[in-house]
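The passage that follows is intended for readers who have already worked through the single-chain material. We present the inputs for a multi-component assembly, then the predicted structure in tokenized form, and finally a short commentary. You are encouraged to pause after the input and sketch how you expect the pieces to fit together before reading on.
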Amino acid sequence: MGGRILVALTALALTAATPVRAVERVDPQAEFKAFRGYFQQHFPKVPLEDFANGPYAMDQDMRKQWEDIEQFPPYEFALEDGKQLFATPFKNGKTYADCFPNGGVGIRQTYPYFDTKAGEVVTLELALNRCRAANGEKPLSYVGPEMAALTATMAYTSRGKPFDIKIPDDPRALAAYEDGEKYFYTRRGQLNFSCASCHVQSAGERIRAEVLAPALGILAAMPIYRSEWGSMGTISRRFTSCNSQVRATPLEPQDALYRDVEYFLSYMSNGLPIAGPGARP
Amino acid sequence: MRARIAILALAALALCAVTPASAAADAAAFKAAYAAAVAANREAGALKDQWTTTSAALKEAEQAASAGKYDEAVRLAQQAEALAKASIVQAKEQDQAWRAAVIH
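Having made your guess, compare it with the prediction:
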């Protein structure tokens, strides 16, 4: 009898310790289908894989612009720089290739991934800096040209490979997914905009002279050369500048929440081809 | 909806300058107004929802105080506090409201 009470009390204690979020468990697979379906319904003429091309997929005129840009792509210099940086040995003689599976070639589509040992999302940018740290090198700026060049080169070797983001059977991975989802849909800044305000609810619409990219496939072409910036930009740069544009103070680049957003958005783009580096207006 | 109206109202208040700064504003008045604004902005930071306009107003308030323009400094600090409070309202409302925007 006493044993039964003990078991009941233990069960109660375990229930009490379970976070509230467990009750409202998200279903990433169902959300993935709904997310993709939303964009396919709104843009029935855009072939699925073309969502990787962002605003350039939206209509014939934009597509023509993109095809012209691809003749002499503005990211070409970054690609060359990235190739050189990637191959240049660290002071200890090792290179970036030593830190990644398959020597870092053709692996972009598997980032970000959830590291079950560390219990966190690891993006390609974070992995590159951790590789540097492991080899006694100082970290690169997450919003600087070197990081953009390195990720451009790695994306280029992965072009056409479909996003393959996994959510392992680990409650922490699901929590990271949901935190990213929450950040994506949460209105913030004095302008009271969420990421979704532009890239879901207004995707394909114009904001001044620009066409807002759909959230589906939005990271497939990263890093990007933006004409507005006049330079290359990483995913970190894109996230921080989006926040600033709505008058929200950006988080630190590669803050856990930004990594979670990248995890959520990349999972939503599973199956779409890597198209990076890209060019955008 | 009510929370959104509250955000807009607070932001509007901030822009109109909440309380006219006293003609006799001095360093002590500025310090108090500034401390209140910083505390509110810190709370917004804990909710991961600070606004760039809040930090800009705080910076301008500091500059005005350094130049001895305490009326202006107090007005800007009060504006910063109102903006920070609006961002707190926004963060608290969005803590659950975001779910309504999810694609299902």
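Commentary: Chain A touches chain B through 23 residues (CB under 8 Å). Chain A has one domain: 26-281. How closely did your sketch match?
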